[in-house]
TrEMBL record:
Keywords: Hydrolase. The lineage of its organism: Eukaryota, Viridiplantae, Streptophyta, Embryophyta, Tracheophyta. The keyword NADP does not apply. One of its GO terms (molecular function) is hydrolase activity. InterPro entries: AB_hydrolase_fold, Fungal_lipase-type. GO terms for biological process: lipid metabolic process. The keyword Ribonucleoprotein does not apply. Residues 172-211 form the Fungal lipase-type domain. It comes from the Eukaryota. This is Fungal lipase-type domain-containing protein.
Amino acid sequence: MRMGSAYLYLSLAHLGGYQEAAATGTYGIMASEREDFSLSGPLHLAIVDWTNAHHRRSVAASLVQGVYILERDRQLKRQGPQALASPWWEFFHFQLLRHLVDDVDSSIFAAIYEFRPPKSHYHSSVDESPRYVIAFRGTITKPESVSRDLELDLHILRNGLHETSRFEIAIQAVRNVVATVGESNVWLAGHSLGAAMALLAGKTMAKTGIFLQAFLFNSPFFSAPIERIKDERVKHGLRIASSVITAGLAFATKKSYQNSRSVDPFAALSAWIPFLFVNPGDHLCSEYIGYLEHRKKMDDFGIGAIERLATRNSLGGLLMGAMGRDSEPLHLIPSANLIVNVTPCQDFREAHGIHQWWRPDLDIKSKLYNYK
């Protein structure tokens, strides 16, 4: 099922665009204040316990925020004491090794950080920390970057992000870092469009047997907004119908691996389990909730085989394949640690924003989904 084109365009225009448009009004903090770590950052994490899920999530989200502010510093020509980006990583004893620049609009879209804690901060939990984090920002709805960012958002919709030059720059950087320091020392993190980039990089590496820890905040899942339906029976009925249609079309187009000697690429990815952070009030990512939970319900009904075929395909991807453009839906993943923020939000912009993920008072529900 797909959303209408007008609805999709409006959704794309909001992808990751909290940076300015959504900044005012949320918690009563203005945009410039939300960029200032001393006013909006997780100051309560003076000492990070790397075994604590909240601490790990907060640091990963802050490093992503650092990329947003790097680009805003560039756009606003903030330098020296006026620049706001560095506290977002230096507070946690990371250093900026380099930033990644888009070859089309010269915007900063990612950063590579190295963890260098002082000896006074060495404790047992440091063994659980990353040595390097590669973080990706989402869309910034400002003239200097919005055109290129929205173009990439459309590539996500068309399952074509892997064909873009920005992703080529990103995956080469990931490969280089992993080749230098090893997969166990590297984290990926991203928000919105940036989460899609991190997800695609993680899937690409996982296909080669390299499993990177990944923190995906508000990663887009373009689908009909079934999760927003309040009536559970209607919601579940629509999901069953969608699964049956998708599985049938996949079978008709020979997208099934059940009777083939070839390895199912979807099942091969199941050992990679990213952390997937979603908010029910964010229609751009909330469909992950139903997508993952629906598998269990289909198993309970005794029709899990249908869902196992449907869950690794999308109607849009199958239709494009039927027209000769074979594509792998980016948002479909076999396994995930799903973390849902059920804290009430004021509006969509707050539900989609990166700032929510380091709040100390989050009401979180977590569940592991392991594809078998």
